[in-house]
Amino acid sequence: MLNSMLRSSIMRLAACFLIVLAIWWLSSGRIFVEQIVPKPGDVAVVLAKLAANGKLFWHIFVSFKRILIGYAFGVSVGFSIGLLTGVYILARTVAYPFIEFFRSIPPVALIPLVVSIFGIGEGGKYFIIAYAATFVMIINTASGVASTPAIRVRAAQCLGANSAAIMRWVVIPSAWPYVLTGLRLALGFSFMGVVAAEMLGAQEGIGFLIMQSTNILDAKEMFVGFILLGTFGYLTDQLFRLAVSKRLRRYMMGIEAI
Q: What's the pLDDT tens digit per position in 183-200?
C-alpha cells in the first residue's frame, strides 16, 4: 500500500515536471524571445557551469542560512504574539490594527527603512525574512488559541488546573493544527522574503543571483535562480510535512489540505 502510494506520488511529480518543461520549451522562441525566456537546455548548461565552479552550492548555503535564521526568529516572535492575542481580548483589541497595518506592507517596501536602521549587513537581511514570516504565524496561532473549545478549558478547571496548566496542557495542544499551518506557510514566505533581503547589498545568495542577472540582462542565470528557489522551497515543504507526519501526525489535519 505504502509503495503504491509512493510510486503514484512520484509519477504525478514526474508528469507535472514534464508538462512544465514542455510548456517552457515550446514557449521559448515562439511565444517569448529567447533573450527573455531561454531554452531549458541553455539554462541547464549555466546551472552545470555554476555547479562545476562551486558558486551554485555557495549561493544555496548562504541563502539557506539566512532563511533558517530569519524563519526561526520570525516564527518565535509570531508564535508569542499570536499566543497573547489569542488568549487576551485586550491584547487582541490593541494589537489587531497594527498587525493588519503592517502585514499589508510587503517586505521589499521596507528596504529603505531597514537600510537606514541596520545598514546593509546581515542583520537587515534576517529582519526582512523574519518580517515575511511573522504575520502569518501571528494570525494562525491566534486563530488556533481563540478556537480552543470552552468545554476543554472548563473540564481542566474542574480538575483543579491553574491558568499556566490550562495554557500548557489544553490551549496550546488545541491550537497545534493552526500553529503547524502557520509554520508551513511562514516557511514559504521566508523563501519569498530572501529575494527582498538579498537586495540589501548582498554579494552571494539565490536572491542575489536573480537580482544580479536581472541587472546584467542574463536571463539564463535568472532562470537558474528561479529553479533553485522553487526546487528547494518545494523540498523543504515536503521535508516539513514528512517530519510532522512522523512526530505530530494527530495534528496534521490543519495542513493536509494545503
A: 999 999 998 888 888 887
Quick check: helix, strand or coil at residue 32? strand
Q: What's the pTM value of the predicted model, to 2 decimals?
A: 0.84
The pLDDT score that the predictor gives to residue 76 is 95
**b/e 35-68 (16+ beta carbons within 10 angstroms → b):** eebbebeebeebbeebeeeeebeebbebbbebbe
- Which amino acid is located at 53 in the chain? N
Q: Which of 171, 184, 188, 193 is nearest to 82 (CA)?
A: 171
> Closest by alpha carbon to 63, among 186, 216, 199, 222?
199
**How would you class 70 by CB atoms within 10 Å of its CB: exposed for 0-12, middle for 13-18, buried for 19 or more?**
buried
